[in-house]
Design goal:
The complex is a heterodimer of chains A (421) and B (326). Chain A is an alpha+beta fold and 421 residues long. Chain A has two domains: 3-121, Sandwich (Immunoglobulin-like), CATH 2.60.40.10; 131-419, ABC transporter involved in vitamin B12 uptake, BtuC (Orthogonal Bundle), CATH 1.10.3470. Chain A has twelve helices and 15 strands. Chain A has helices at 15-24, 129-161, 168-185, 190-219, 223-245, 269-291, 293-303, 305-310, 315-340, 348-363, 368-384, 394-408; strands at 3-5, 26-28, 34-39, 41-42, 45-46, 51-56, 59-64, 70-75, 80-85, 94-98, 102-106, 112-114, 118-121, 260-262, 265-267. Chain A has a four-stranded mixed sheet with strand order 2-8-3-12, with helices on one face. A four-stranded antiparallel sheet of chain A has the order 7-6-9-11, with no helix packed on it. In chain A, strands 1-13-10 form a three-stranded antiparallel sheet, with no helix packed on it. In chain A, helix 2 packs antiparallel against helix 11 and helix 3 (168-185) runs antiparallel to helix 4. Chain B is mainly alpha-helical. Chain B has a domain at 17-235. Chain B is 71% helix and 1% strand. Chain B has 14 helices and two strands. Chain B has helices at 3-12, 17-36, 43-61, 65-87, 92-111, 116-119, 130-134, 152-177, 179-189, 191-196, 201-224, 236-249, 255-280, 289-310; strands spanning 142-143, 150-151. Chain B has a two-stranded antiparallel sheet. The termini of chain B are far apart. Classes of the chains: A alpha+beta (421), B mainly alpha (326). Chains A and B meet through strand 9, strand 11, helix 4, helix 5 and helix 10 of A and helix 4, helix 5, helix 12 and helix 14 of B.
């Protein structure tokens, strides 16, 4: 269907890049302090004369890209704007592929914001419904699998400690940020960067348990205060990420690889690797839980901590392992989420957190396999709902389903009734 | 270092409408969380309904102020019913997850381009202040003194906002001393015991959810009056900040949310003013002023953790009346 390429300038965030941009672009609104800008390219060719329109906060301006494919529009206020790329001004055979030709953007903490359009090859006729369905289905499966990696961690932690861990979002972001640092800043190959990031994520889980959660368990803090502590931790970590990484979105190496066609399904090699990796890891987790001693101990603690403790299981050790495994899975999920969205940003995990909670609740709080099933349902639902709903409402559908499920089967798909009351 | 400006800007926050709005929202949350033990994480959703209910009624339907007010309140009652019916019979953390999800649904519905004609999508709405300003009995000119000096509209807004906060506080104070309030507190302590006394726990919880939600909705209107309604203001983070205020002041108290809101905003304003100028003066060479802005949110997060761990009853709370459901 579409060969999706990610071909836009990313950062006008440093002064240096920006001054180059502004020197050439056909500038509009230079009298204002805040600037939206971008670079329209396709397959490495700059596209000249593409009309860009900015609207918002009672302000409207338009411009066309210059000979280098660049555009920049000054805006009076730091707020949110609607940036439209006029598809009629693109050359034949090029369209806006992903995300649509209208992008809602918002200034983060800097005075400049670059706006990227995903251009792709193709003509602007619609694909038939069945093909779209199959394609969305495969995408949804991919999303569901990466969701499951995070959801299993949430579920295991909830099962063993009773904590609804809001800081899981930041554990997801951590994996992606660590991969970014290792691959871009340290120049390691991406596979090595991912391995390091996952190991480090596991270390983060160990550290959080050792420094915060274990002492609080010792202190006998109840479940609800623990949850609020995790909210505080989530806020603190999230803004710490923003402190160090800023508000921008950065791509991991290899993002935006060309899609391959399998009948109606178009997948990039990254998507396929992501699905394969998720399946292998999920199988490994299943083996761990069902066949190994420590996995069985985990399920025992999940079932009844005092009984498990009385039968000689080292509950603290089990919980420590659950935190390490959960954080490592969250880190991997973050890396895959960074490729799926695409891009790494400081609040990416938080954007996904509610879907993770929805998946866990759907499957049944505290059951690992329920989390898997719930995740796949949520993933499929989010992607398939874009066939009917506008894409900026796709999360709404999944959250509505969450509320409906609680209405009719509050214990979730695999949950047991006694947990809910 | 201009200490006068820093303290002046911080003092402004003491009685600003935003502080009043947060205080009222936190008071609603005190009814939910502190007194009834309901974990409502969707206060931002109630506030969004208030702000949008008010703004849309005036802009799209041309309602008078009282009509717009009633639309907002009505919307939040319906919202509370929708939230309460599936979850109030379940354990506390289910309500938490459902309310947080519902608040996000509300925000996404106001953000989506589909309803742009009515909601203004991501740009939000503005230009609904004239109707409220027309009710202003004060003559043109400036009122107050020092950092509290404001023009007629802002003074009028402050008077209305804080009057509502005081009325709401008196209402909560009285209602929690009444038989109704004793049942509510009983539900927080031991739901089954109250049920054994023949009380309809579900109905009481629902009433509490509606009451606190209406407070949140009115807070949303106060919050919207000095600024434009923008959906990104109503993110989950807003709810978390209101929780921070509530925990700071004391969850099961009447004064706690109000004083907590004042302390929160004065400190936040003082801190950001101080850091911004310290960065300018070169005292903090490792930091930009943008990073200073994020530092204060990091501190809010850390403060939430520390309060919950070391002083769960907050500033005004009573250790015996522990503010947490178990």
């Amino acid at each position: 269907m579409l060969a999706v390429l990610f071909v836009t300038l990313l950062a006008a965030f440093t002064m240096a890049t920006f001054s180059v941009t502004s020197a050439h672009a056909d500038e509009v609104g230079t009298e204002y302090d805040f600037t939206l800008s971008g670079n329209v390219q396709f397959n490495g060719d700059v596209l000249k004369g593409v009309a860009i329109d900015v609207k918002g906060n009672g302000y409207q301006a338009d411009t066309v890209t210059d000979a280098e494919g660049k555009w920049s529009i000054g805006v009076p206020e730091k707020g949110s704007y609607e940036v439209t790329l006029d598809e009629d001004t693109l050359p034949d055979g090029v369209i806006v592929a992903k995300g649509g030709s209208v992008i809602d953007t918002e200034f983060a903490l800097t005075d400049r914001k670059s706006v990227n359009f995903f251009l792709g090859e193709g003509t602007r006729n619609t694909v038939n419904f069945f093909d779209q369905f199959v394609n969305r289905f495969v995408n949804g499966l991919n999303f569901g699998l990466l969701l499951a990696l995070a959801a299993i961690g949430v579920s295991l932690i909830f099962g063993t400690t009773g904590l609804s861990n809001f800081a899981h979002a930041e554990m997801i972001t951590f994996g992606a940020l660590a991969t970014l640092v290792f691959s871009v800043n340290f120049g390691l190959p991406i596979w090595l960067a991912i391995i390091f990031a996952i190991v480090l994520s596991g270390g983060l889980g160990f550290g959080l348990d050792a420094v915060i959660w274990k002492p609080l368990r010792r202190k006998g803090v109840a479940v609800i205060p623990l949850m609020i502590v995790s909210i505080g931790l989530s806020l603190a970590l999230r803004y710490t990420y923003q402190y160090f990484f800023g508000g921008s979105t950065t791509q991991l190496p290899g993002a935006g690889m060309k899609d391959l066609q399998f009948g109606p399904v178009s997948l990039s090699p990254i998507d396929m690797a992501s699905m394969g990796l998720s399946i292998v890891v999920l199988l490994a987790v299943a083996y761990f839980l069902l066949r190994t001693r420590i996995g069985k101990a985990t399920r025992a603690v999940s079932d009844n901590p005092s009984l498990a403790s009385a039968s000689g299981i080292d509950v603290d050790n089990v919980i420590r392992i659950v935190w390490i495994v959960g954080a490592a899975l969250a880190g991997l999920s973050g890396v895959l989420w960074a490729y799926f969205r695409p891009g790494v940003s400081w609040d990416m995990g938080f954007q996904m957190l509610l879907l993770v909670f929805a998946a866990v609740t759907l499957g049944g709080l505290g059951t690992a396999f329920g989390a898997l099933i719930g995740s796949i349902i949520v993933g499929l639902f989010v992607e398939l709902s874009t066939l009917w709903l506008p894409s900026d409402m796709k999360i709404v559908g999944a959250l509505v389903i969450l509320i409906l499920v609680l209405l009719f089967r509050p214990q979730g798909i695999l949950g047991r009734k006694e947990r809910i009351g | 270092m201009d200490w006068g400006a820093i303290f002046g800007n911080a003092a402004v926050e003491l009685i600003s409408p935003t502080t009043a709005a947060y205080a009222l929202a936190a008071l609603g949350l005190a009814v939910h969380f502190g007194y009834t033990g309901l974990l409502n994480f969707g206060q931002a959703g109630f506030m969004a309904l208030g702000a949008y209910g008010y703004a849309i009624s005036i802009l799209t339907f041309g309602f008078p102020v009282w009509g717009a007010f009633l639309v907002g309140v009505g919307a939040s009652v319906v919202f509370a019913l929708i939230l309460g019916v599936p979850t109030l019979r379940l354990r506390a953390d289910y309500l938490a997850i459902v309310t947080i999800a519902a608040a996000e649904i509300v925000r996404l519905l106001f953000t989506t381009n589909t309803f742009s004609a009515v909601t203004g999508s991501a740009n939000g709405l503005s230009g609904y202040k004239n109707e409220f300003a027309a009710l202003n009995p004060l003559a043109e000119g400036s009122y107050g003194f020092g950092p509290f000096e404001n023009n007629a509209y802002d003074t009028w807004l402050r008077i209305v906002a804080w009057s509502i906060v005081i009325l709401a506080a008196l209402l909560v104070w009285q209602i929690m001393r009444s038989p109704w309030g004793r049942v509510i507190k009983g539900i927080r302590e031991d739901e089954d015991a109250v049920r054994a006394l023949g009380k309809n726990v579900y109905a009481y919880k629902m009433q509490s959810l509606i009451l606190g939600g209406v407070f949140g909705t009115i807070a949303g209107m106060i919050f919207a009056l000095p600024r434009a309604v923008v959906p990104s203001n109503y993110q989950t983070t807003l709810t978390f900040f209101i929780y921070a205020i509530l925990l700071l002041g004391g969850a099961a108290t009447v004064l706690g949310p109000i004083i907590g809101s004042m302390i929160f905003w004065v400190l936040l304003s003082f801190f950001s003013g101080f850091v911004a100028r310290a960065v300018e003066a070169g005292w903090l060479p490792f930091m930009t002023s943008v990073q200073g802005g994020q530092l204060r949110f990091i501190l809010v997060g850390v403060a939430i953790m520390l309060i919950v761990i070391f002083r769960p009853q907050g500033i005004f709370g009573n250790k015996k009346e522990l503010s947490f459901v178990r």
